[in-house]
From TrEMBL:
This is CaiB/BaiF CoA-transferase family protein. SUPFAM superfamilies: CoA-transferase family III (CaiB/BaiF) (SSF89796). It comes from Antiquaquibacter soli. Keywords: Transferase. InterPro entries: CoA-transferase_III_domain, CoA-Trfase_fam_III, CoA-Trfase_III_dom_1_sf. Pfam families: CoA_transf_3 (PF02515). It comes from the Bacteria. The keyword Cell cycle does not apply.
Length: 389
């Protein structure tokens, strides 16, 4: 769907590469500009372990893209960069705010060079403001945005989410903004500057609880493990005799029937909020008496809103996850078979897959420059000068 759209990606870590990969999955020609030595994510992985020297962190966000190596500070790279961007459709960058401006690649300069260019900046807090120089990283934004404080039991420490949800949501919002700008350009002929940042993404993830808070409702974390400061019981994870189940949004009348316990029916609807911890505790007492499988069968019959609490091994084998065709794999010359998540959206029932695996560092430097009209001699000279690699 994005065939014919060229994206120049100055990105690293997770937010930027993931946003670029979304566009690449949709058919855009994404050219990843890397420094000598490669982008950060080539040389880092959260567990500190690599697969035959290859980073799974790089594998998760760089499929379907091409890699070139350019020293952005080298005096001979300026002309190459201008040629690269002169007829590009999108520039996407995730440097600290102001970095590309200092390199002569700011929005105003490039918009004069290429008025149709959509210029997307992905940052931690935005491109201006009191926090502009702070480090932007997922768990830091979970803390700052209130997400960590909203998670966990009353009286216990705030609890960050166990995945980089802010990074990934910011990436999706960035890609959404780019697609909107490309659509708008079809009418106006003019590219615009798109900005997505981790702080906005973290707030957007909390659209419901923050709306309550903005309108005067006081959040109250539950001592009994209700998973939202604004929801009635039962809502959250409960221990069974041999595992855990999650239960959501069930009336007290239904609870009385499901658990054969008339106590629940004595709670008036107007009192459900005040009694939510008591209700949750009583549900927990019932649930812990039987096995997960027994409750799954019973809850299914009773049409309860529930789900098993699965670890990653169970998720990977889950029949609905597999039915949705959620995973892909490719053969790496050194690491062997690498498995990754697919693009999350289907189009006419198909999820875009891997056209090309994540590239070797600078694998397409010659190919890209040749496409810009550079001769072999000129490319050799630039590589010899260390402007490119």
């Amino acid at each position: 769907m994005l065939s014919g759209i060229r994206v120049i990606s100055f990105t690293h870590f997770l937010q930027g590469p993931s946003a670029s990969q979304i566009l690449a999955d949709l058919g855009a020609d994404v050219i990843k500009v890397e420094p000598h030595g490669g982008a950060f994510e080539r040389n880092w992985t959260a567990p500190g372990r690599f697969i035959e020297g290859e980073s799974p962190f790089f594998a998760l966000g760089n499929r379907n893209v091409r890699s070139i190596v350019i020293d952005l500070k080298h005096e001979q790279s300026a002309e190459v960069l201008r040629d690269l961007l002169a007829d590009a459709d999108v520039l996407i960058e995730s440097f600290r705010p102001g970095t590309l401006d200092r390199l002569g690649l700011g929005f105003d300069v490039l918009h004069e060079l290429n008025p149709r260019l959509v210029y997307a900046s992905l940052s931690g807090y935005g491109t201006s403001g009191p926090y502009v120089d702070r480090p932007g990283q997922d768990v830091l934004l979970q803390a700052l945005s209130g997400l960590a404080a909203a998670t966990g039991r009353a009286g216990q420490d705030p609890t960050p989410v166990g995945a980089c949800v802010v990074d990934q949501h910011a990436a999706v919002l960035g890609a959404l903004g780019i697609l909107a700008a490309l659509h708008g350009r079809e009418r106006t002929g003019r590219g615009v500057k798109v900005e997505s940042n981790l702080l906005n993404a973290a707030l957007d993830l909390q659209i419901e609880p923050l709306t309550y808070a903005l309108n005067g409702f006081e959040p109250e974390r539950s001592a009994e493990g209700i998973s939202s400061a604004f929801y009635k019981a039962p809502y959250g994870v409960f221990a069974t005799a041999d595992g855990h189940l999650c239960i959501s949004l069930t009336t007290t009348a239904a609870l009385a029937r499901v658990f054969d316990d008339e106590w629940f029916a004595t709670i008036a609807p107007a009192d459900e909020w005040e009694q939510r911890d008591t209700i949750n505790a009583r549900v927990a007492d019932h649930v812990r008496r039987r096995s997960t499988a027994e409750w799954e069968a019973h809850f299914t019959t009773e049409k309860m809103w529930f789900a098993p609490v699965q670890d990653y091994d169970a998720v990977i084998a889950d029949p609905q996850v597999l039915h949705n065709d959620s995973f892909d794999e490719y053969q790496h010359p050194r690491a062997g078979t690498l498995r990754v998540l697919k693009h999350a959206v289907t189009y006419d029932g198909v999820r875009p897959g891997i056209r090309t695996p994540p590239p070797e560092l600078g694998e397409q430097t010659r190919e890209v420059l040749a496409g810009l009209g550079y001769s072999d001699h000129a490319i050799d000279a630039l590589i010899e000068s260390k402007a490119l690699a």
